[in-house]
Amino acid sequence: MGAAQPESAPQHLDLRVSQAPVSMRADSATVKDASGAKAKCNVYNRYYLCQQMDITVHVLKNGKEVGSVSFGVTHKMNLKQTSPKWSESVQFSKAKIVGNARGVLMTPRVSCGNPCKATPKIPKRTLGAAFSGSVDYADAIRKGKSHGTASKYEYTFTKAGYTPGNVSYDSLNYRCDDTFSSQQRPGCVFPKYTPTLTAMKDLPTIAKHIRSVQNRGGHYGRYGSGHPLHRLTDKKKAEANRRAVCGKMKPGKGKSCDEYPFARTHEGGTKLPKASRGVAAVPRGEQNQQGGMLTAFNLKQRVMEREAFWVSV
Description:
39% strand, 3 helices, 2 domains
């Protein structure tokens, strides 16, 4: 009888997944697709996010790559000022398939932290042609509360006979709150984006005063100074701040004392050195408009207690 033939060594078939690092940057403009132009991505502002991820599935045989499939995922999320419900579009590009990488099936999963609920409408697909999906979100935030979380995207890749591969990543953090209940409904923002108050450019005397203070000392509130202002919601503390700097001032007929930084900030009153603060006599009409502008800005940008903002005049 002939010698027994040795059994062939088992093959190790695996899928390994990699993704390219992403750098996000703030962009004050609302980012939209322009007709015939390539839209900006990996940018965000207070209510909008565009995030693009590049993913590659490596097909391995006995530890050696025998093929790969690469594709991009573009997320576009639009939060709402006065609703804790919003949606996200998800676009998967046409996959680039190299070598023995056909037949890779992708199974997606999307979640967010409780009490946020994500309802994904992204199909399970064999990678190849471009396709799209969406995710609906709802945050059951309670009255007087705020809640921060992020979307978690998880993908499992399978191919017949191969050990599955996985990859996951998060969106930028978003925050939903119901802390303006007496003035507006709950809503959500990207808190990493620091909004800028620009309305006071229309108040010539006050704008001049703010510029004069921002141009000296620590340049508080001026974009790029590293020293934003921070909202103060305690009315008694705000009144104390105003008395501390305007209490002894006599602005004259038809005039009012204007303080910068604003009394309704944590930098107000005498919190900062003299070089970084100031008071001026301004027309009472401008002073009356200023308060409304600050209130409207806080509502529009959902600026909460101790949250930062810039002032541009």
